[in-house]
Recover the amino acids of this structure.
């Protein structure tokens, strides 16, 4: 069925006491949504005025064929100008752009817009001195420090395409991305800090360069306190390692280079169903327009407001809402190095909100569940004044109603679940707080964003018309501005992965339903992708790693329910004849293998040895049945089961 925002609008108005009335501007969500769908050309061309163009586009969209479109053709702009120069020119140079708060080192630092512009322009100059030109790729492998923002915006300043890799990935995952993106430059640090351990990046980078760094000419290294390692340690390396501070000091500030609207702003890799991650390509113009609009119309954030996205720059949430969105809007963004719990306690989030006057906070449900486990009565909240907080936005995984109620009742501000993906770069569905806060429905991500035409399709691609009936969630083409334009280096992969299943639609890979009021419920993935602590992982790539072990004959990985992380990956293996092992030793070896090949982010800790994997007679592993058994759900054993004993063995070891 089609999501019907008209019915959502007919619902009684929600609690809007936290939404300043001038922001409502008499707009109703349903009117705005209808306008965006009926006349996207006019809607988005008008919205394009929110950004500063060197050449203004005269039309919003150009569709070349079913799988190709360009937003704002003919338009030229520079994103770093929109994030920095225009605010400085407007007299806001002294306003804080970035607040850095590291719970790991105790460091607290602010950069004004003028200071950030200066650093970005200089580092852009350093990149240019290293031979980086518009269109060249730069891989950024950095922890949560202000340099991550500087590096990303420096790329934008000279039209380079960045690809940020999350610090929790191992050398081989970094290498896969280096091979695919073929960067000229890697930007990194001596390392990151995790509770109880330091993560030295330079040995990881050196190994990744060996495995996949053929294109790399220069590595910039910023030194971190507490983590050993510097560019000087690699003075004899065949690739040039340069100290960031020296390079930035020596460089002339680079002028911004305007690029075409469709010029790729960045590539961000995400897990697909195979072991090979997909490089999602974001354009420049559509991205800048959509994110600028989203700050006020979705998040209710304007210039001067303090905004905090407690994610990581390595994820899409970090790209859009630690870096680009808040700076495009002229707001203050917080970059926080720490965890919601244990650094030092479950009051960490509330401390930051009080200390900086945070107006809206964005994090993942898993972080809220972690706080809840440590501090179910929210006693830490009583130590802080969080009255500045107007909304808590959650995304990245399903927000279970229980967690929703706990947070909504305890924190005394609206908790807003919203749904999006690396591919979309900004939300698909949300309670549009910046337009009109609709009455929330726990378990629902509310209504489609303006620009999004969402359908529920059955397996044959037909519209599911009954409210409440689950199906494949799909979006009509063309996708709104800022959503992906393609997959890096592989035109066919974009079509095959997203457009082939339902011609004329983008298949989100999620299933769900729309209720009688037009509210969307996202229930889970339809593919082999799992979601661990808001991080997307491919079970296929985990299985590939497990079978690298010389004792393992076959492997299946499923995502089972986890009280904190939403899901956790559990492995099931069979052993080769003559390779019997102590299960505990084997488990440790397999866990180490996953850490080595994928990284600690997989949080892989559980493996079961089976005599046989449950399969159909045609050899298909019954992953869904395995998951259902482990999750204690009802399950159906297909008549085509190869050996029912395999199911009995699973039932015997499943948690009760
Ligand atoms: N660099 C290196 N290692 C990292 C890392 C990084 N940037 N981020 C996480 N890791 C490591 C952790 O140290 C941990 O290692 P360990 O197995 O040695 O303990 C492992 O990866 C798993 O990390 P994580 O999933 O973060 O689990 P956790 O138990 O340390 O913390 C939460 C649990 C809920 C507190 C944490 O997952 C969290 O804050 N999640 C928020 C999720 C988020 O921001 N998602 C983005 C989408 S909005
Ligand atoms: P990622 O690309 O890593 O951000 O993961 C995107 C996937 O996370 C989506 O396809 C969904 O499966 C899931 N997801 C994200 N946000 C939500 C949400 N609010 N509710 C349910 N699932 C979500």
């Amino acid at each position: 069925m089609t999501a019907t925002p008209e019915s959502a609008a007919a619902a009684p108005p929600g609690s809007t006491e936290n939404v300043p009335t001038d922001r409502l501007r008499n707009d109703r969500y349903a009117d705005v949504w209808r306008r965006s769908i009926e006349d996207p050309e006019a809607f988005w061309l008008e919205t394009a005025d929110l950004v500063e163009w060197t050449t203004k586009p005269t039309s919003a969209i150009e569709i070349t064929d079913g799988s190709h479109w360009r937003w704002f053709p003919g338009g030229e702009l520079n994103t770093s100008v929109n994030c920095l120069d225009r605010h400085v020119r407007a007299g806001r140079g002294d306003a804080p752009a970035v607040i850095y708060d590291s719970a790991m080192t105790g460091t607290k630092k602010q950069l004004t817009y003028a200071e950030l512009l200066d650093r970005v322009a200089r580092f852009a100059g350093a990149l240019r001195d290293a031979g980086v030109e518009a269109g060249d790729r730069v891989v950024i492998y950095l922890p949560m420090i202000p340099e991550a923002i500087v590096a990303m915006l420096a790329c934008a300043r000279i039209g380079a395409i960045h690809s940020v890799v999350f610090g929790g990935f191992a050398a081989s995952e970094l290498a896969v991305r280096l091979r695919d993106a073929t960067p000229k430059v890697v930007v990194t640090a001596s390392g990151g800090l995790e509770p109880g351990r330091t993560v030295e990046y330079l040995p990881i980078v050196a190994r990744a360069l060996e495995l996949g760094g053929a294109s790399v000419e220069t590595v910039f290294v910023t030194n971190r306190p507490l983590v050993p390692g510097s560019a000087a340690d690699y003075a004899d390396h065949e690739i040039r390692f340069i100290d960031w501070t020296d390079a930035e000091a020596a460089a002339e500030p680079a002028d911004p280079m305007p690029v075409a609207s469709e010029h790729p702003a960045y590539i961000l890799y995400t897990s697909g169903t195979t072991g090979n991650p997909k490089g999602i390509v974001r354009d420049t113009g559509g991205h800048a327009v959509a994110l600028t609009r989203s700050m006020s119309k979705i998040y209710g954030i304007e210039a001067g407001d303090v905004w905090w996205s407690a994610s990581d720059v390595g994820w899409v949430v970090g790209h859009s809402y630690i870096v680009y969105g808040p700076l495009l809007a002229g707001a203050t963004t917080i970059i926080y190095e720490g965890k919601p719990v244990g650094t030092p306690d479950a009051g960490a989030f509330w401390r930051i909100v009080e200390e900086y006057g945070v107006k809206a906070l964005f994090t993942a449900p898993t972080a809220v569940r972690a706080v809840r486990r440590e501090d179910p009565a929210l006693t830490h909240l009583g130590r802080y004044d969080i009255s500045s907080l107007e909304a808590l936005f959650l995304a990245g995984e399903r927000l279970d109603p229980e967690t929703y109620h706990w947070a909504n009742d305890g924190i005394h501000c609206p908790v807003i679940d919203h749904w999006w993906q690396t591919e979309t770069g900004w939300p698909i569905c949300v309670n549009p707080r910046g337009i009109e806060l609709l009455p929330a429905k726990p378990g629902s991500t509310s209504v489609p964003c303006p620009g999004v035409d969402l359908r529920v399709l059955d397996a044959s691609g037909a519209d599911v018309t009954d409210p409440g009936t689950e199906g494949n969630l799909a979006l009509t083409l063309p996708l709104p501005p800022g959503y992906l334009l393609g997959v890096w280096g592989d035109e066919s992969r974009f079509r095959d992965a997203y457009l082939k299943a339902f011609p004329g639609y983008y298949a989100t890979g999620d299933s769900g339903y729309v209720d009688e009021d037009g509210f969307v419920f996202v229930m889970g993935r339809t593919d082999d992708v799992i979601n661990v602590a808001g991080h997307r992982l491919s079970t296929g790539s985990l299985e590939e790693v497990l079978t690298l072990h010389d004792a393992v004959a076959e492997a299946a990985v499923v995502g089972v329910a986890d009280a904190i992380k939403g899901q956790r990956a559990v492995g099931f293996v069979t052993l080769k004849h003559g390779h019997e092992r102590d299960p505990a030793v084997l488990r440790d070896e397999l866990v180490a293998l996953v850490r080595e090949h994928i990284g600690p982010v997989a949080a892989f800790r559980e493996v079961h040895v089976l005599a046989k994997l449950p399969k159909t007679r045609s050899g298909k592993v019954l992953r869904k049945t395995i998951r259902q058994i482990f999750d204690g759900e009802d399950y159906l054993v297909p008549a085509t089961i190869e050996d029912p004993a395999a199911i009995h063995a699973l039932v015997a070891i499943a948690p009760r």
Remarks:
- The pocket of adenosine monophosphate (ligand 2) is lined by residues 270, 316, 395-399, 417-422, 445, 508-510, 522, 525, 531, 536 (CB under 6 Å).
- The longest strand covers residues 552-562.
